[in-house]
Structure formats: structure tokens, C-alpha cells
């Protein structure tokens, strides 16, 4: 994937950081999409829109938060629509700038997750080995849990070594649904 990725610390860099956000609906529940000046910084899934907004405020407490009305026009409205489409069809390739905020280790894990092909799964230990830290399986799981960019950083593609789904920040049922959608899309591709 060729997305531009900006790096930053959680919480916003200073009080002048502005994060624009909108909450929409999908077949997996509500989706909050937030964008900083660097790119998409949060894609959160949940059952209650107010809880998603609270999570965003907690995640970026120093930022200025600007809510965008759904159905508005402009570039951000297009980004919101594209992200909701991605939630509905997670096997699609989405070329969009991301603002990944986390530790250096978390960003390495998230980059490795982005290289997992749609319709496939890998284990936490596979990811640990891919980033050159084979003994850091628990830390990989924690980095997956800290991911705030649902679907675009596909932590739903990581399972236990035995193939069990294990946990998912936004609920195991959503994880199961995303994997089923990707498997269905992959099965629908013509073989060459």
C-alpha cells in the first residue's frame, strides 16, 4: 500500500491541533472517522455514537475537535464516505493518508498489519517474527489493542496461533464479520 503515513504522539501535539470528525452508520454499527491535518487519525467502531466521540476526546485531549455534519459536501465528506465503504467492503484497497500516533514499536506492528493481504489471517507470533521481535508476542497483542484505525490497520486479520479469533477491540462479532466479508470477496475473485 502506498498510503502516506504521518507519525505523532497520542494526545495531539499542542492545543492548536484540530481534529475534524464525523459519525456515520454502517452494517457493523456506528463509525467515527477523524482526520488531523496529517491524515485519518481514528476510525472507531461501536454501538453508541456518544461513546465513540468520548473515546476520540480521551484519545486526543489536547486537540481542538471539530464535528462535521454528515451529508455535508467537500473533501472530508468524500473521505468519510470512502471509509464507510471500506468498513462495508474491507478487502478494498484504500489510498488515503493516515496519521498513525503511537510508539515506534506500535507503528512497526501496525505497518506489518497493513501488509497482511485481505482474506488471510496471521498469528500474533507471526507478526512478532515479521518485525524482528519474535519474543514480543504479548506486546504485539497490546499494539493491536491500541490500534485506533479500524479496518485500515487491519488488526482483525490477526488470530491466535491455533486459528482462534481471540479478542478484538471493537468486538469479536465485528471481527468475524470483517473476516467473512474479506473471505467472500477473495472467493469471488476470478482465478488466473
Walk me through this protein's architecture:
34% of the residues are buried. Strands 4-3-2-5 form a four-stranded mixed sheet, sandwiched between helices. The chain has a two-stranded parallel ribbon with strand order 1-6. The chain has a two-stranded parallel ribbon with strand order 7-8. It has two domains: 5-98, Double Stranded RNA Binding Domain; 103-188, Winged helix-like DNA-binding domain superfamily/Winged helix DNA-binding domain (Arc Repressor Mutant, subunit A, Orthogonal Bundle). β3 and β4 (40-46) form a beta hairpin. The protein has helices at residues 49-59, 75-88, 104-114, 124-130, 137-146, 172-188; strands spanning 5-8, 18-26, 29-35, 40-46, 64-67, 98-101, 122-123, 158-159. The chain is α/β, with parallel strands linked by helices and 192 residues long.
CATH class of the largest domain, anyone? Alpha Beta
Question: CATH fold name of the largest domain, please?
Answer: Double Stranded RNA Binding Domain
Please state the average pLDDT score.
Answer: 85
- Sequence of strands across the biggest β-sheet: 4-3-2-5
Return the CATH architecture of the largest domain. 2-Layer Sandwich
Structural class: alpha/beta
Give the ordered list of helices and strands. EEEEHEHEHEHHEH
Low-confidence stretches: 1-16, 188-192
Percent range of helical residues? 25-40%
Can you identify the CATH superfamily of the largest domain?
Methylated DNA-protein cysteine methyltransferase domain
DSSP strand count = 8
Instruction: State Rg.
Output: 16 Å
Q: How would a textbook summarize the main sheet? A: 4 strands, mixed
Q: How many separate helices?
A: 6
| Tally of separate domains | 2
N-to-C span:
22 Å
Shape: globular
